[in-house]
Amino acid sequence: MEGPWGPVAATRLGQLAPALVRWRGAPCEAHRRIGSTNDRAKELARAGAPEGTFVWADEQTAGRGRRGRGWASPPGVGLWCSLVVRPPLKPGQWTRLVGWAALAVASTVKRFVQGPVGVKWPNDVVIGERKAAGILVEVETPPGGDLFAVVGIGLNVNHREDDFPSALRRQATSLRLAREMYGPVAASGEGALDRQTVLQDLLAELERLYEEGIPTGFAGVFDALRPYSVTLGRRVQVVGAGETFYGEAVDFTPDGMLVVLDDEGNRRIVAAGDVSIR
Ligand code: BTN
């Protein structure tokens, strides 16, 4: 990936990550610059693109985060990519895909950085207190078509402090910065990382956990995420429709909702958009 980029290179996912089995033959687009890889992957999926279709870009000009936020995606330093999946899940189970992707990203990050890698529910991968990656899963049913999900991953790889917008500098990190702070995993080298190597490891981990998750509909994915969680055990504020309450985050449901023990001792199930950690 560090080599020359054409405007768009179309290839097969198996050429990018030769170890893949399930998605080896799926189409893969590489863009030097694009608005959002999620938007492009959705376009392809709506037109019937198969599972495993993958879009990545060196730079996004309109990268999107959750809840209408932007995602800074400068050239040369990150992995900005989106994968189309069509898992045979029941309607209420699609939220589990966030857990699957978060687990894959967190365990990939751990291969390169010695620091405290965690997952801030529901979709942020952090190293220490700082965010290194975000996940945006978008599920859609096109008219007359089958349900699909686009799993968008933004992973900060080689950023230095100056590569982040000033407002994010104290909250964000990259694998490179975290390696400087906590040390690299010995076998993974030092300093700047080869993004292609990181991407190959990420794809392999996504595939491995996908194969593992499919037979049970990803039933255990939020159990597996528990050891990484930096949210469980923390005091949270929940701002719902017409009500605000405080409590302790104590568990996840199998579908990835947060179980909060409120200050009155009631167990309450809450969705991602409503929670902030105090
Ligand atoms: C978040 O933390 O709010 C989610 C950020 C997701 C960013 C990735 S970058 C690749 C893909 N394309 C997008 O426009 N967004 C996701």
Q: Kindly state the mean pLDDT as a whole number?
A: 93
The number of distinct helices, counting runs of at least 4 residues, comes to 6
| Sequence of strands across the biggest β-sheet | 1-2-3-4-8-7-6-5
Secondary-structure-based class equals alpha+beta
Order of helices and strands: EHEHEEHEEEEHHHEEEEE
Estimated radius of gyration: 18 Å
Separation of the first and last Cα atoms: 40 Å
Low-confidence regions = none
Helix content: 10-25%
Can you give a write-up of this model?
- There is one protein chain.
- The chain is 22% helix and 30% strand.
- It is of the alpha+beta class and 278 residues long.
- The chain has an eight-stranded mixed β-sheet with strand order 1-2-3-4-8-7-6-5, sandwiched between helices.
- Strand 11 and strand 12 form a beta hairpin.
- The longest helix has 19 residues, at 195-213.
- The structure holds biotin.
- Biotin (BTN) binds at residues 36-38, 60, 63-66, 69, 71, 73, 80-82, 123-124, 134-136, 152-154.
- The site of biotin has 22 residues, from helix 2, strand 4, strand 7 and strand 8.
